[in-house]
Amino acid sequence: MTESSLVPWRFCNPYANQKYDPVRSFLFNGHKITIEQKQDQKIDITQNTGNIVWDGAYILSKFVQNHVKVKGKKCIELGAGTGLVGLVTWTLGGKVTLTEIADLVQHTQKNVELNVATLTTKPSTLLKEDIEVKTLTWGNEIQLNDLSAPYDVILGSEILYLHEFHKDLLKTLRLLSGPKTEIYMVYKQRGLGEEKFFLLAKRFSFLVEEIPQDKIDTEFQNQPYRVFKMSKA
Description:
Elements (H helix, E strand, L loop, with lengths): L22 E6 L2 E6 L18 H13 L6 E5 L5 H8 L3 E6 L4 H15 L11 E5 L5 H5 L5 E7 L8 H11 E12 L7 H8 L2 E5 L14 E8 L1
Parallel strand pairs: 3-4, 3-6, 4-5, 6-7
Antiparallel strand pairs: 1-2, 7-9, 8-9
Helix pairs in contact: 1-2
């Protein structure tokens, strides 16, 4: 047995940074999810954020797997990017709609088609009819009317860093949710005013609850990531 084989697998691997690899693989619920990343454009917090898997997407995916009942429920992901959170939710039995803006939705669609093709060909309980991708700009009433609201579960990973979109996002959440809808969001504290979203959410008549740090993946409990649950008041 080699020395390297004794090192347990970790998402944050100090020996291999996969953040910008062309292809990344994740194991959830016994399913291998393959995510293609785009590297042909500059990526930072202000542009092309949907081209790679951010840590928040992995954190939220793990949280959903461990703490959220999604089987048989109608779920939607906002700002899906590469599609990891929505795909994980689908493998857990959710009926999932992934949404993204027009400039990025093609990349989301590509990853969904890739995983649907591989995960539904072998003996599997997963159905391609239970996952779809839609274009959505927050606040766009025409696009919102094309969705099957209300949803049972709404998910959002690291979509709060641009505070100028907070009001449109909250309007979208109100239109997509019903009295029993559960909303789960994760963000990284970057000093960009992300926490102000939840103060504004209370003014939009949402109940807001911060999830205890010991409920998120152990690798990230001491890092500046926060998970919140919201519902209509």
